[in-house]
C-alpha cells in the first residue's frame, strides 16, 4: 500500500509519454512506469539505468532513440514525480534507482558494452542487489536464481562492481583489536571492562583472498550475496547464491567505520542511508556511544544536483550555528567512505516525544488525564515553543517539527534533532530549499517546494499541539477528522480557545496561521489556570 508520502508526491501527468509518442511508440501504464514492449521476448536479461533527477530528461532523450533502433523493450518512469518516488526509496528499497528498465534478449549481451559507453557521463543511486557496470548501468540476476552468466568477459567493469547491498567489515582482526584496546585502557585506569571478551570473540575475521573479512549483508533487499569475484584485472564474472535461513539468522558481525567507529546496531534502515549506533574510540581510548547517520551516494538528489552528501554537510553547518542556542546532539565528525557520507553525532540517552506523550495518555483523552499530567505536557510544550522562538530569532527555520524530532533526556533536557531540512532566512540558503519532511507535520507550501517562511514551522508546531492535546498519531488521522478538525479537537479537549488555535495553525493558507507569540501566550495562560 502506498504511504502518505507517495500520495503527496503522486501526479496524474504523464510527462515522459510525449517522448514515446514522438517516436510513434505504443505503451502501457503500469503504476509509476510507462512500458514499451516493441517485441515479445521470453528469455531476457533485465538491465536497469539509474540516474539522478537532474540528469533524467537528458538520459531519456539520448537512450529512447537507441532502444527504438535496436528494437528493445523497455520501461521508464512516467513523470518526474514518479522518478522522485523511485529514486528516493518511497516505493521501497527494492525499487531504488530503477528509473529505466531495459529487456535485453539473451544472446545480445554485446549491447551491454554499448550501454556502458553511452551512459559513461551519467550517475545515479546504486540499485540494491544488482551487478554494477558503471555509475548508471546495473544488471539483474537471473530469474531462475542460477546466477548471471552473460558471457561478459569482453565488458570492462570496475573491480568494485559488487552487489551494493554488501558492505565489507573491517580488515581481519581490526574490530577485535580496537575493542581489546578499549578494555586495556579501562584496566589501566581501574575501570570495569565495558566489552565482554565473549562478545569480542564473536567478531568474524575469516578472510577472503582480497585481504578483507567476508562481506556482511546489511540492508539488502534480496536473499543473495556475492560469492565469486575476480581477484585481479578489471573484468569480472559474477554469480549469486541463495542464503540459507541459518546463515541469515547468524549473529551480525562487527563493522568498523573510519578505523574508530565500531558499529554495534542498526537503529533505522532507510534507502537514503541507515542510522547506526556505534562506539567511538577517542584519543584516550575511552569508548563513547555515538549515532552515525549515513548518506548513501547519489541518494535524494534534487533538481539542483544536491544529494545526501550536501544535506549532511548542511546539517553539520547548522550544528555549529545553533549549538549555543538550543540543545542539539554534538557533532563529532563528518567523513566519507566507499562513496557514502557519514555524520557522527553524540548519542543522547533519552526517549522520543511520542513515547513521553503515550506514557501520559495511556489510551485516555485530555479530559481524563490528571491535572498534574496536563501541567507536565504543557510545560514540555512551552519549552519546545521557546526553542523554536530562539531558532527563529537567530534567523533559522527547522522545517521538520514533529514528535519524532524531539528527544527528552534523563534530566528533562529537550533536544531538537534532524536538521537537514533547515533554512537560513538571512542568507536565503539553501535555494531551492531541501525537500520532503514528515507527512502530517509538513505544510502544504513546503510540500510544493515554495520559498520557506516561519509559517512552515508554525504549521509543524500546530500539528505537534494536536498530538499534545489529543494523544492521536497524526499519520492515523482519517479523512473525516481532517475535514472536521475543529469538532475533533473540541470533542477531545472541550476548550474553544485551543481548538481555534490549532485549527488556524493548520490552515492551508500560511497567512491565516497565528504567530508564535500568540501560541506561547495561550499555552502560558492555560498553565496558569491549571496551577491556580
CATH architecture of the largest domain: Orthogonal Bundle
Give the full name of the CATH homologous superfamily of the largest domain.
Transferase(Phosphotransferase) domain 1
What is the tally of helical segments?
Answer: 17
Radius of gyration: 26 Å
Ends: how far apart? 49 Å
Q: Helix coverage percent of residues? A: 25-40%
Strand portion: 15-25%
Low-pLDDT stretches are 1-14, 142-172, 185-200, 202-248
Average pLDDT across residues?
Answer: 79
Which structural class should the secondary elements be placed in?
Answer: alpha+beta
Shape: globular
Largest sheet: 7 strands, antiparallel
Write down the domain tally: 3
Please list the strands of the largest sheet in the order they lie side by side.
1-2-4-5-3-7-6
Q: Please report the total strand number as a whole number.
A: 22
> CATH topology of the largest domain, anyone?
Transferase(Phosphotransferase), domain 1
CATH class of the largest domain: Mainly Alpha
Amino acid at each position: 500500500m502506498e504511504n502518505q508520502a507517495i500520495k503527496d508526491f503522486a501526479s496524474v501527468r504523464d510527462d515522459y509519454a510525449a517522448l514515446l509518442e514522438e517516436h510513434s511508440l505504443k505503451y502501457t501504464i503500469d503504476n509509476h512506469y510507462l512500458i514499451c514492449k516493441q517485441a515479445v521476448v521470453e528469455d531476457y536479461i533485465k538491465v536497469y539505468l539509474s540516474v539522478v533527477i537532474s540528469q533524467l530528461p537528458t538520459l531519456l532523450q539520448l537512450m529512447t532513440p537507441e532502444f527504438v533502433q535496436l528494437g528493445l523493450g523497455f520501461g521508464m518512469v512516467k513523470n518526474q514525480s514518479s522518478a522522485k518516488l523511485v529514486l528516493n526509496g518511497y516505493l521501497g528499497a527494492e525499487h531504488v534507482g530503477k528509473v529505466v528498465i531495459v529487456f535485453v534478449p539473451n544472446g545480445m549481451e554485446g549491447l551491454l558494452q554499448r550501454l556502458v559507453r553511452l551512459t559513461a557521463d551519467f550517475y545515479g543511486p546504486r540499485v540494491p542487489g544488482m551487478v554494477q557496470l558503471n555509475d548508471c548501468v546495473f544488471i539483474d540476476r537471473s530469474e531462475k536464481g542460477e546466477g548471471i552468466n552473460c558471457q561478459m568477459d569482453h565488458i570492462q567493469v570496475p573491480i568494485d562492481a559488487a552487489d551494493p547491498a554488501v558492505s565489507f567489515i573491517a580488515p581481519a582482526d581490526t574490530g577485535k583489536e580496537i575493542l581489546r584496546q578499549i578494555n586495556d585502557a579501562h584496566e589501566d585506569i581501574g575501570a570495569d571492562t565495558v566489552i565482554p571478551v565473549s562478545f569480542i570473540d564473536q567478531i568474524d575475521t575469516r578472510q577472503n583472498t582480497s585481504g578483507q573479512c567476508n562481506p556482511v549483508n546489511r540492508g539488502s533487499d534480496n536473499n543473495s550475496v556475492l560469492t565469486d569475484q575476480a581477484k585481479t584485472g578489471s573484468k569480472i564474472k559474477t554469480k549469486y547464491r541463495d542464503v540459507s535461513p541459518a546463515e541469515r539468522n547468524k549473529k551480525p558481525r562487527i563493522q568498523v567505520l573510519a578505523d574508530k567507529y565500531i558499529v554495534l546496531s542498526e537503529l533505522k534502515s532507510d534507502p537514503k542511508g541507515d542510522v547506526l549506533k556505534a562506539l567511538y574510540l577517542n584519543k584516550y581510548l575511552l569508548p563513547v556511544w555515538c549515532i552515525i547517520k549515513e548518506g548513501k551516494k547519489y541518494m535524494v538528489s534534487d533538481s539542483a544536483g544536491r544529494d545526501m552528501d550536501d544535506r549532511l554537510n548542511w546539517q553539520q553547518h547548522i550544528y555549529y550555528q545553533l549549538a549555543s542556542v538550543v540543545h542539539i546532539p554534538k557533532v563529532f565528525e563528518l567523513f566519507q567512505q566507499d562513496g557514502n557520507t557519514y555524520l557522527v553525532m553524540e548519542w543522547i540517552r533519552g526517549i522520543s516525544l511520542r513515547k513521553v506523550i503515550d506514557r501520559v495518555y495511556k489510551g485516555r483523552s485530555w479530559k481524563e488525564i490528571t491535572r498534574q499530567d496536563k501541567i507536565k505536557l504543557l510545560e514540555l510544550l512551552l519549552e519546545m515553543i521557546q526553542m523554536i522562538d530562539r531558532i527563529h530569532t537567530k534567523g533559522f527555520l527547522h522545517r521538520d517539527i514533529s514528535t519524532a524530532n524531539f528527544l527528552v533526556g534523563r534530566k528533562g533536557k529537550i533536544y531538537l534533532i534532524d536538521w537537514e531540512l533547515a533554512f537560513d532566512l538571512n542568507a536565503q540558503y539553501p535555494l531551492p530549499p531541501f525537500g520532503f519532511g514528515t507527512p502530517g507535520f509538513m505544510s502544504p507550501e513546503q510540500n510544493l517546494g515554495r520559498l520557506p517562511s516561519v509559517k512552515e514551522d508554525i504549521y509543524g508546531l500546530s500539528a505537534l499541539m494536536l498530538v499534545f492535546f489529543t494523544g492521536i498519531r497524526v499519520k492515523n488521522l482519517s479523512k473525516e477528522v481532517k475535514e472536521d478538525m475543529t469538532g475533533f479537537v473540541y470533542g477531545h479537549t472541550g476548550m474553544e480557545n485551543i481548538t481555534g488555535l490549532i485549527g488556524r495553525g493548520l490552515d492551508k493558507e500560511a497567512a491565516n496561521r497565528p504567530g508564535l507569540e500568540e501560541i506561547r501566550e495561550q499555552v502560558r495562560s492555560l498553565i496558569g489556570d491549571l496551577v491556580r
